[in-house]
Amino acid sequence: MAAFVGSAPTRVPAAPLPVAVCGARGVPAGAPAAPSVAAAGEWCARRRRPPPSTLRHSQCHNPLSFSRGQPSSPPLSSSSSSSSSLPLSPPPSTGGGGATLRAAATGGGGGAATAATGDEEEDSPPPPEPSFTPSGRAITAPRPVVLDGSDDVRGRTRMEVFRDRRAAASPEDVPTGGREAANDWLFADVAKINVTAGDGGNGVMAFRREKGVPKGGPFGGSGGSGGHVLLVADKGLNTLARFRGRVHFRASPGNNGLGKGKHGAGGADATVPVPLGTVVRDATSGRVVADLSEPGSSVRVARGGRGGRGNMAFKTDRNRAPRMCERGEAGVSRWVKLELKLVADAGLVGVPNAGKSTMLSRVSAATPKIANYPFTTVVPQLGVVDGYDGEGGDAAGGSSTSRSMVLVDIPGLLEGAHAGVGMGTAFLRHIERCRAIVHVVDGSAADPVGDYEAICAELELFNPRLATKPSVVLLNKMDLPHVRAAWEEGSLRDALLAVMPHRRLAAVSAVSGAGVQKMLHRLTDLVVDARAKDDGGEVIAPAEYEDSDEEELAARKVTVQVVAPGVFDVRGPKVDRAAAMTNWDYVEAVDRFQRVLEALGVNRKLKAAGASDGDTIVVMEREFTYYARDNIYSAAAFADGYTDGFTEEGDVDDSRRPADGLALEYSLDDDGEDEEDDDDLAYEEGDDVGDGEGGELSKGEGEAKGQASDPDDGLIIIDVDAPDAPPMGKK
Ligand SMILES: Nc1nc2c(ncn2[C@@H]2O[C@H](COP(=O)(O)OP(=O)(O)OP(=O)(O)O)[C@@H](O)[C@H]2O)c(=O)[nH]1
Ligand SMILES: [Mg+2]
């Protein structure tokens, strides 16, 4: 069998090596592209169906509501059907003589409202053909939300809209001061952090030297492992805001090993608390690493480096005095993305200004901001509803029969929210974890049924599973006489029931409290049922965790590439790791590195790639010279599968070595006999012990630093002197 034999390694000049395209160091694939409005449009176009007969509410006059067709143009007047008296503009108008304001109805473009005359109206493009959700709900072209007649929300950040809104509103409309308002934006539900595990400590080569103890044997301790970085779900946290101020998290490195057989202490883990419901993704691949939805659940996001082994660890029957040691492995460093999905029993959803926050404040002790303009709520708000029958108890995450529940008030959703319009995806994400959905419909809107249908369509387009969650529909603002009259007349109720997939419809007033208790009763039943079915906690099954078989296989992958005539570049995670941990100062360490290459099939690949004697092999920017020669120990070791006879790390595996001793010639070939008689072993007890890197460590230093424990200092029985140990030397 051909074997790869390395010469003493030399550093490769950084420049000339071409970058090879390979799995280990190739350019990482980017995260999957976020869904765009255009992509959503394409999807809708593919799903286009003829309009169902239920599309009765095609007229929409409320500038804050969704349209379900091209809006008609009511005359310019202040007769908005909303109870609004605040800085909202009157509805758009195209008829009549006076100048009118017509908001540009672009497909997500966000153009400002433009003045239009009747003539211009004739030139306007025909209304877009409606598309449909998978269940047949109509999706119309997005219509902008008008703030003050010339202000278009679409295409603008919420902060911009928020500033305008504050500028336009009278002081009493904005109850909180600037600082408090700005704090709204501290809510964070996504974050990207860098986690770096601790490096492993270096191993040491040392030999026992004590007066009266000849041939004391190897005595170099191993380095401690580096600490891991762990993310732990913490019930007490609600946002990812702390990650705005701190991005890097590091665990401690392991301590170096010492002489006298002292091992270095392991580095401490870094534990990073994250809110319950945090989804952890690898920032490069976008792959889910964990979904921390159980209190106390944790995931290791960066593995600490393994400590390098001291020469004690390499002692075998065949090599009683190994003259090598390993360097510590570098800790893993990576970027991870955190995504918070609030865990709540029910989510309040609806168009802006429907009264969601008012309802939350009515049924819980939460004090969300309430005002008569869109986007009063800019971040999701949580509230705990005590059991309406006084039972109390834990809310979400507590006992499944508790009648208390957690509600989350989701900011108002716009048409196109599922594709990101108005930060819609950021808000819709939180609904995925809710067990039930509470649709809050503004009874005073021009088209309450259209609003409800549009929200249903957005939920379904965002995640079809949301359409199957249990829900209740609240027709709000019943205290307003015209709303109550419409309800009692029956047409509104019938129209809503006609489009609802169930009959859980409640007429309520969040302001007066009418109907709220009854509604809560029904909602609680739904939530308790859903808890019993364990529905709602849509936990993402991680694609893979670290250390899975697939990762292990990927780690073993080796790529051999010809980068120039006679120059081969060898790459792969395990090869790289072995190279990084090899202490090139020791010949035996270099030998061992070769065995690792053999075990990983590098020699086979080099041969297949046409390597011949004298060729240059590059591993981790180090050069070796290749010699194809039969290798007695590798032949024996890899006879039945390429790792038999050696451990995966390239060490001789005593337990599996062939009985005929075929592989035994190798290990003590060069300096196996009477090594302890070498000059460098001849020092007395109490002398300093080499640390394997040329440095010196004085006696007791390890204890002083607390790095190593040595309960039997000076009394350690060394295996080599044990009566049943075979004599040292060449076999
Ligand atoms: N008359 C009446 N007004 C209500 C009722 N519920 C809410 N409102 C009013 O409607 C306006 C909007 O209420 P909010 O609770 O802020 O609406 P929202 O759905 O949270 O709005 P966004 O946060 O913008 O999505 C406020 O002026 C409320 O006082 C109700 O039952 N009756
Ligand atoms: Mg609100």
UniProtKB/TrEMBL annotation:
UniProt cross-references to SUPFAM superfamilies, sorted A to Z: Obg GTP-binding protein C-terminal domain, Obg GTP-binding protein N-terminal domain, P-loop containing nucleoside triphosphate hydrolases
Family of this protein: Belongs to the TRAFAC class OBG-HflX-like GTPase superfamily. OBG GTPase family.
UniProt keywords, alphabetically: GTP-binding, Magnesium, Metal-binding, Nucleotide-binding
Residue span, Obg domain: 185-343
Cellular compartments per GO CC: mitochondrion
GO molecular function: GTP binding; GTPase activity; magnesium ion binding
Protein known as: Obg family GTPase CgtA
Known cofactor(s): Mg(2+)
TM segment ranges: none
Domain OCT: 545-628
Residue stretches of biased makeup (Polar residues): 55-70
Biased composition range(s): Acidic residues: 667-694
Composition bias, Low complexity: 75-87
Taxonomic path: Eukaryota, Rhodophyta, Bangiophyceae, Bangiales, Bangiaceae
Domain of life: Eukaryota
A Pfam family recorded for this sequence: GTP1_OBG
Annotated segments matching region Disordered: 47-154, 665-731
